[in-house]
Every structure is written in structure tokens, then in C-alpha cells.
């Protein structure tokens, strides 16, 4: 199979690669998603694009875990923005979560709560009930390169499909 974007030697339907995915992601992948195997040492966006195709810089998205706090209550959520932007944590995220304060969740919290590796967190297979906030530019991108839940491998997903994931909400101004 040829990947819809990038220059990969090893691309297969994600449903046929469940053995290369962490359990929550393996349970959630669909036939429209493509898994590309890749070197975990080259997982960071800039190095990854230099290795597998510079055009991936405009088609890559990052998924980050944020914590919104109001009093003693903490709400964890995932945010997805194109990799050449950043998440508006103190504006769009804080307002959407109804929090007094919002920040990136500590690495231990993000990894422990998702069951995924840091640097590979993906919106596919998030914990039930988590808000999933997505920038409109991600949904408008025909094919989006995302983490696979591990630093080894990536998922290539139709952008519009992300808006159909559980608890997904497209939030204007999320990526700045």
C-alpha cells in the first residue's frame, strides 16, 4: 500500500497493524486510517519531515494533553492543532473547559492517563469522556499525520474523520 502523503516504505491500513499500537489506539483505529512504520529516533516533527517528506510539515498535527483547573476540580482534555501552530491554552482551551487556569498536563499525567508514549500521543483512543478539542484547520486538511500512541510509527487520517471521534469538538481559535 502507498501512503496518501509522505514517502514511506512501510504503510498499511491501521486495522492491520494493531500489534504495533498501544491497546487504547489499537481498539479505536478504523479502516480509513493508515499506519506508517517509522524510526522512533526520528519521531519529532522537524526530523520526521526531513526524513519522510518536507511536505509533511504542513500536514502534521500535534495532540497535546491539557489540564483545566477550577478550584479543586481538574479536567483533562486533548487538543489537536497543526504542527506549525501552537495551542491557545490560556485563551480558547481555558474558556472551553470553563477553567480558571489551564496548562499542559505533566508528562507523567499525560502518559499515565492515555496509556500512550510521550511524543506519540494521538486523539485516536483517548480515555472515555475526555473532551477532544480540534482546530478547524486540522479538520480541513485532507490527510493529517498524527502520532500512533507510540514514538514508533504514525497514523495518517482524513482530517474530517477527526471531528467524528468521541467527544470531538471543533474550536475556532484553538491553534494560534
Automatic annotation (TrEMBL):
**Alphabetized InterPro entries for the sequence:** YbaK/aa-tRNA-synt-asso_dom_sf (IPR036754), YbaK/aa-tRNA-synth-assoc-dom (IPR007214)
The region called Disordered is annotated at 1-22
| YbaK/aminoacyl-tRNA synthetase-associated domain: residues covered | 43-163
- Cross-referenced CDD domains: PA2301 (cd04939)
Q: Which residues form a coiled coil?
A: none
* Top-level taxon: Bacteria
Record-given protein name: YbaK/aminoacyl-tRNA synthetase-associated domain-containing protein
Origin organism is Actinacidiphila epipremni
